[in-house]
Design a protein that fits this description.
The complex is a heterodimer of chains A (338) and B (356).
Chain A: E1 2-8, E2 15-23, E3 26-31, E4 34-38, E5 45-46, E6 54-57, E7 63-66, H1 69-79, H2 85-91, H3 93-125, H4 131-145, E8 148-149, H5 154-168, E9 178-183, E10 191-194, E11 198-202, H6 203-208, H7 212-227, H8 230-249, H9 258-289, H10 296-308, H11 329-337
Helix pairs in contact in A: 3-8, 5-7, 7-9, 7-10, 8-9
Chain B: E1 10-13, E2 15-16, H1 20-36, H2 42-55, E3 57-59, E4 62-66, H3 70-89, H4 97-122, E5 124-126, E6 129-133, H5 137-153, H6 159-172, E7 174-176, E8 179-183, H7 187-223, H8 227-266, E9 268-270, E10 273-277, H9 281-297, H10 303-316, E11 318-322, H11 340-348
Antiparallel strand pairs in B: 1-11, 2-3, 3-4, 4-5, 5-6, 6-7, 7-8, 8-9, 9-10, 10-11
Helix pairs in contact in B: 1-2, 1-10, 2-3, 3-11, 4-5, 4-11, 5-6, 6-7, 7-8, 8-9, 9-10
The chains are: A alpha+beta (338), B alpha+beta (356).
Chain lengths: 338, 356
């Protein structure tokens, strides 16, 4: 067999056009003033990615290039070389379809199970007390920008502190958790957990609650976030999912890169909702253990929404929190059954 | 080599022969294998992707190729991943530790920029000869830090000058074999492009705002001043005006990058030969926007099609005026292999102005 080929000497960019001949015993390139002989066994050949140029690599950076696909396969055969697995898969549409299925199922498994499981493992293997500094420092910053001292009277504070310590006495790991009160016109009625074991509740939230049970529901939800180390896990999950999605969509440039932001955002919202549900479950379990109606949390959240005038118009799959009405234990059970 | 005599010049168009269907198969196999190997294959995937695009790009019947070792890329990525992990968790040590790390990386940017370039250029070949990049850290620091300083201290007025310095640095330190590229673009062209972009986008935003105001006033007149309808109106005008403003922003961005890209290539020469790039702002905007729509609507399946389409257009408007014998470009024997630093630099892959 023979084909047209170009010879490059590797010393300069000039080329020589000639003929490449191959038989099982002998490969030879000949052009004006040059002749190269290769024993098939010693052949170093590089197949193209897709249809393209084949390259025979010679000593001293010299090379021979040709485009004839069937010639390339014949030479490979003569030399006893096998095509790489990737090279073979890339040739067939059937393999591409298989790869598509693997990609979809694999990406789904990786993002919905792999990432959360991995993040949980990493988060719980880091000792809890390393969170202490970040908690102290971030509350200092928030105090100077967001918060004023609480105006709740001491007996009310002491009463709620008692409710809180009842929750944290469940487990020795929760001993270090603290509750502090702040007033804030900017964020209004709210309660949140600061990594490191601090729960902040605003005066406005205390005012909004109708009963101790509702306050217990919220406090237990925040303790749930702390106990499950959600702050660390969400950082790990968000960054690893962003890297995975960026890696899979490839290097999109410029405005097309926006399209990779959509799945990233949806995935991160889902992670956030999952953690809210996990904290809800924690709260429900505690409420049940002390014999309180588990609907108190949803009651308070619904009132909070009405108070802030949020009609809950964000569709569920976009939101960082589950819909308040969904956060009743009875609703969640039907949700599971579906 | 400046002493080579010019030969009768010929102008050739860059040929890109990649096909969407063929590249789709390579792309999807890359993704599947990357997932199955939990990311390890991503380094091999990168090499195959690059090899596909490079080897399907030809000038005067000679094509490009990419020779990086996937293992080298993998090592670089592992180091980058470890650093990123340290960055994520460092706030547990001190709240400002991540910031401190960012500052350290910021001061390493010139080094990373150079190493990334060295890695990519030395692993790219054309006609059997490798490209090259000089390890000019001083030049990189000057182009990068000085550029940022003058931009900040002039409140952005000197943005085009900083872009000019960076392009000049990258072109002048690049080489094909032993022959260095030369940058002879006009500084004033950079300045003109920047201010035209600023002027046009300001003008467009003003026009859109006035049009929005007029529509609102007109509708208000017709509907009367019932409370609920005026709220509805404000929202409507908001929606009507935000879209053109986003569009102005996108077009301005494409305009700036495309014109700069053309300007950099048109100001690049090597020995007696030079480049001509004639990207059109209108066509690039159209390609970007339709690519974006196609990618979102196909849930990403048209990404390979979009990338091939872009590469085809870019090649079709790129010409090379060849006025040298190919044999006058000689290989640089000293530039072999790649150091670990190159691999780390490559993992950070610092984008530069002409990366479009």
């Amino acid at each position: 067999m023979q084909t047209r080929a170009h010879y490059f000497d590797g010393q300069n960019a000039g080329s020589k056009q000639g003929t490449l001949q191959a038989s099982p015993a002998h490969i030879q390139f000949s052009a004006e003033g040059i002749s190269v002989d290769i024993v098939p066994h010693d052949l170093r050949i590089e197949a193209p990615v897709g249809s393209g140029r084949w390259r025979i690599i010679l000593v001293d950076n010299a090379s021979i290039e040709f485009a004839d696909e069937s010639f390339g396969q014949y030479v490979e055969q003569c030399a006893g070389k096998e095509r790489s697995i990737a090279g073979l898969l890339e040739k067939s549409w059937r393999a591409a379809l298989g790869a598509l299925v693997v990609a979809i199922v694999g990406a789904w498994l990786l993002l919905t199970f792999g990432v959360p499981i991995g993040a949980k493992y990493v988060a719980f293997s880091i000792p809890a007390d390393v969170d202490q500094t970040i908690s102290d420092e971030s509350i200092e910053i928030m105090d100077s920008f967001l918060f004023a001292t609480s105006k709740l009277d001491e007996s009310e504070q002491a009463h709620i502190q008692k409710l809180f310590s009842d929750i944290t006495s469940q487990h020795a790991d929760y001993d270090t958790y603290r509750l502090e009160f702040r007033a804030s016109d900017i964020i209004g009625a709210n309660a949140f957990a600061v990594p490191g074991g601090l729960v902040i509740m605003t005066d406005q939230m205390v005012d909004l609650a109708d009963s101790d049970a509702e306050i217990i529901g919220v406090l237990a939800h925040e303790v749930g976030h702390l106990a499950q180390r959600h702050s660390l896990r969400i950082i790990l999950q968000n960054s690893s999912s962003a890297i995975i999605i960026a890696g899979l969509t490839g290097d999109l440039t410029n405005i097309t890169a926006l399209s990779a932001a959509i799945p990233t955002f949806l995935m991160q919202s889902k992670y956030s909702r999952d953690f809210e549900r996990e904290a809800d479950e924690f709260s429900f379990a505690y409420l049940r253990s002390i014999g309180v109606d588990t609907n108190v949390l949803a009651d308070l959240l619904t009132r909070l929404e009405e108070d802030q005038g949020e009609a809950g118009e964000i569709p569920g799959w976009l939101s960082s929190h589950p819909q308040s009405e969904e956060r009743r234990p009875s609703q969640m059970e039907t949700g599971h059954a579906e | 080599m400046d002493d080579t005599a010019p030969v009768a010049s010929k102008t050739v168009t860059v040929q890109f022969s990649g096909e969407a269907g063929e590249y789709f198969r390579i792309w999807i196999v890359n993704i599947a294998l990357t997932i199955l190997t939990l990311g390890v294959y991503s380094a091999w995937a990168t090499v195959r992707k690059r090899r596909y695009f490079y080897s399907h790009t030809a000038i005067d019947e000679g094509s490009f190729d990419f020779h990086a070792s996937p293992k080298a890329i993998l090592i670089g990525r592992l180091i980058a991943a470890a650093l990123f992990g340290a960055y994520l968790l460092s706030d547990r040590i001190h709240l400002f530790a991540p910031l401190a790390l960012l500052v350290v990386v910021f001061f390493l940017v010139p080094w990373l920029m150079v190493r990334s370039r060295v890695f990519n250029m030395r692993n790219t070949s054309y006609r059997g000869i490798r490209f090259n990049f000089q390890r000019n850290y001083k030049g990189a620091a000057k182009a990068f830090f000085l550029g940022i300083l003058v931009t900040v201290f002039t409140f952005g007025v000197m943005t085009p000058t900083a872009a000019f310095w960076r392009s000049q640095f990258f072109v002048n330190n690049s080489g094909y074999g032993q022959t260095l590229f030369k940058f002879d673009a006009d500084h004033n062209t950079f300045i003109a492009i920047f201010w035209k972009m600023v002027g046009l986008s300001l003008l467009s935003v003003i026009v859109v705002a006035i049009a929005g105001g007029l529509i609102a006033a007109l509708a208000d007149e017709m509907l009367g001043d019932s409370g609920s309808s005026s709220l509805f109106l404000t929202q409507l005008v908001g929606y009507v005006t935000i879209l053109p403003i986003v569009l102005v922003y996108v077009v301005a961005g494409v305009y700036y990058r495309v014109r700069l890209y053309n300007c950099v290539w048109n100001g690049t020469c090597i020995s007696n030969s030079r480049f001509i790039s004639l990207l059109s702002v209108r066509k690039m905007t159209l390609i970007y926007l339709t690519n974006l729509v196609a990618i979102v609507a196909s849930f990403g399946l048209l990404i390979p099609w979009a990338q091939i389409r872009l590469a085809k257009y870019r090649a079709s408007v790129m010409e090379v005026v060849i006025a040298d014998e190919w044999s006058s470009f000689t290989a640089d024997k000293s530039a072999q292999g790649s150091a670990l630093g190159d691999e780390i630099g490559n993992a950070f892959d610092i984008e530069v102005d002409i990366g479009i």
